[in-house]
Design brief:
The protein folds into 2 domains: 2-388, Growth Hormone, Chain: A, CATH 1.20.1250; 391-469, Arc Repressor Mutant, subunit A. It is globular, with a radius of gyration of 24 Å. The chain contains 19 helices and no strands. The longest helix has 40 residues, at 350-389. The two termini are 28 Å apart. By secondary structure, it is mainly alpha-helical.
């Protein structure tokens, strides 16, 4: 009970530490309104500053996992990264100088490394069947804080907004310092790195993310400027549909088919660009376009954040997997932003922008079934073990004792069954029991026969169903 309370406390602190830090990134570093306001105040070209910070943020995300390989190193990098972000932000209180560009480059890289490093804490402090909720909580809380900072920057002063953004960093440092630097020792036979099975679906996920987030970049550069005259409404409503979509996705039942929600998200993106093409630029028009677009962004962001969270169980370097996965998001927004600047500079009509966005969607629709197949193959154990893993040890024991096989299991078969239910592969079971892999396969076949099933998934499904029937 005490250990459970500690784990919950660490999870809450981890979520809060990352939420306030991520709020700084959203409000300043990464297409943030605070940065935009400061650049506009001094009549400076925004795009080259925004893109420069975005590039180094991508580099930080992508590269961090190659030199951060432990929880203690991740904590150190998060603290150093947030500290560097504080230092890199200070020059923006003064008149524009070369330090502004240096600050964005340093802050972008440091923040990227810090975000990637949080993958270690997500794996350590959140049970695998709860990571979708932790991811949703981080995105919800950080966006709520971002809205507050944006409102201050737009309606009061960008310098006050900048100070609030730095306060977020300081709070992030305080709560990160309170987190333990070491994870608990892994149990024998715990799922280990599965590089060959992990990197192919991760690569496909990254390709999907890059392509679909090109539309997000277009939104920043094409849609948002078209509604600049609605400053008051945009300052607080912009992220509201995003937050609401996250809340709905977070609380979907486990049995819900989330893949169908992804197609709904694609339809919403399509609707946003078509509405942008057909409607005017009044308040109601903005509400329609933004609700569709940001609602879809919430659906997709939680999709790939949660998938990355599940993938962390299949690697011994969660920083690398988490960082590379999220770097695809940044790359897509960057490419979309460059494309958006290009189409606005030549004054491409909104109808042609909509056609371009729909073409991008067609590519993602073609990729999604293939991606889903790859992810199901990788995460199948995770999906059907989620219910079993969330049970207490007593409940798991009750399932084994109360569900009688057709013929009694031998002592060795009972051991193998327990390892199977723990998600171990035949090779891992063999290593743990000091027997050959072929012997494990023989025991597994006997177990399947005695329970009248043909696979691990069917075995667990049968055990859970019969337990519920009782």
């Amino acid at each position: 009970m005490i250990n459970g309370a500690k784990s919950l406390s660490w999870r809450v602190k981890s979520i809060f530490a990352f939420s306030v830090f991520f709020a700084h990134i959203l409000s300043f570093q990464f297409e943030g309104q605070v940065l935009y306001r400061l650049l506009n105040l001094h009549q400076m070209e925004a795009s080259r500053y925004i893109f420069a910070g975005m590039v180094t943020h991508f580099v930080g995300l992508f590269s961090c996992g190659f030199f951060v390989k432990s929880p203690s190193a991740a904590k150190h990098i998060m603290l150093v990264g947030m500290g560097l972000c504080v230092v890199a932000t200070i020059p923006f209180f003064f008149d524009p100088s070369i330090l502004w560009m240096v600050g964005l480059l340093v802050g972008g890289f440091a923040s990227g490394c810090s975000v990637a490093s949080w993958g270690q804490f997500l794996k350590t402090h959140t049970p695998k069947n709860e990571r979708i909720k932790s991811s949703a909580d981080v995105l919800i809380y950080s966006n709520i804080i971002m809205i507050g900072v944006n409102v201050i920057a737009i309606h009061w002063s960008p310098y006050v907004g900048l100070a609030c953004s730095i306060l977020c960093l300081l709070l992030g440092i305080v709560f990160t310092m309170a987190l333990p630097a070491q994870s608990e020792a892994s149990a024998p036979g715990q799922i280990k790195s599965a590089v060959n099975s992990l990197w192919k679906p991760l690569l496909l996920l990254c390709i999907f993310v890059v392509i679909i987030t090109i539309n997000s970049g277009l939104m920043y550069q094409v849609m948002n400027p078209a509604f600049e005259h609605l400053t008051g409404l945009v300052s607080w409503y912009w992220a509201v549909p995003y937050i609401l979509a996250l809340v709905l996705m977070r609380n979907l039942p486990q049995t819900a088919k989330r893949s169908m929600v992804l197609y709904l998200g694609m339809a919403m993106i399509m609707g946003a660009f078509v509405s942008f093409m057909l409607l005017g630029r009044a308040t109601v028009d903005y509400l329609v376009v933004d609700t569709l677009m940001l609602g879809a962004c919430g659906i997709f962001d939680l999709f790939w954040w949660s998938i990355l969270g599940e993938m962390l169980d299949y690697t011994d370097n969660p920083t690398r997997v988490f960082g590379i996965g999220l770097s695809a998001n940044v790359l897509g927004v960057f490419l979309g932003g460059v494309l958006g600047v290009a189409v606005t500079s030549v004054q491409v009509p909104s109808a042609e922008v909509a056609v371009l966005a729909l073409g991008i969607l067609c590519v993602t629709v073609a990729i999604l079934p293939w991606l889903n197949l790859r992810l199901v193959k990788l995460l199948k154990n995770h999906a059907y073990l989620a219910v079993y893993d969330s049970m207490s040890a007593d409940q798991q024991t009750a399932i084994l004792h109360k569900t009688e096989p057709l013929d009694p299991l031998t002592a060795r078969e009972q051991e193998v069954l327990e390892w199977i239910l723990s998600g171990r592969s035949n090779r891992e079971i063999a290593a743990s029991l000091y027997i050959s892999e072929s012997t494990v396969k023989t025991h597994a076949r006997n177990i399947f026969s005695k329970y009248a099933v043909t696979s691990r998934a069917e075995l667990i499904s049968t055990l859970l169903r019969k337990q519920n029937d009782r």
